[in-house]
Design goal:
The chain is mostly beta strands and about 110 residues long. It has one domain: AttH-like domain (AttH-like fold, Beta Barrel), CATH 2.40.370.10. It contains no helices and 10 strands. The chain has strands at about 1-5, 20-25, 30-35, 40-45, 55-65, 70-75, 80, 90, 95-100, 105-109. The strands form 3 sheets. A 5-stranded antiparallel β-sheet has the order 4-5-6-9-10, with no helix packed on it. A 3-stranded antiparallel β-sheet has the order 1-2-3, with no helix packed on it. Strands 7-8 form a two-stranded antiparallel ribbon. Strand 2 and strand 3 (about 30-35) form a beta hairpin.
């Protein structure tokens, strides 16, 4: 099973309503997850010494319709991407450790 979520923040810190995700099941089927179907609680912040930006860097994710509760922790704190030479966007994206439950069963990745 795979899960991809993205939550963009607007300049004022509010969550962009176009944030969404996709859950992919072991049989290859998938389901789009609109923003209203999941909750992300930020548990920790990381501040970049390069850009000065602060990023959420540990999360509690809940997807009630799939009985899923996860905690995601970065494997490396500094996963900031500074793309001044290409897209000119600065953002944080990277690998995480996943722990939690799916339909009552423990998961750990």
């Amino acid at each position: 099973m795979e899960l991809m979520l993205y939550q963009m923040r607007q300049k004022d810190g509010k969550i962009d309503p176009y944030s969404s995700g996709t859950i992919i099941f072991p049989n290859g089927t998938y389901q789009h997850l609109p923003r209203k179907e999941f909750q992300i609680e930020v548990l920790h912040q990381w501040k970049s010494q390069k850009s000065g930006a602060s990023y959420p860097s540990k999360w509690k994710i809940k997807i009630p319709s799939y009985q899923m509760e996860l905690t995601l922790s970065p494997t490396v704190k500094d996963q900031e991407l500074i793309t001044k030479e290409s897209t000119r966007v600065i953002y944080w994206e990277g690998s995480v450790k996943v722990e939690g439950k799916y339909q009552g069963d423990p998961i750990k990745e």
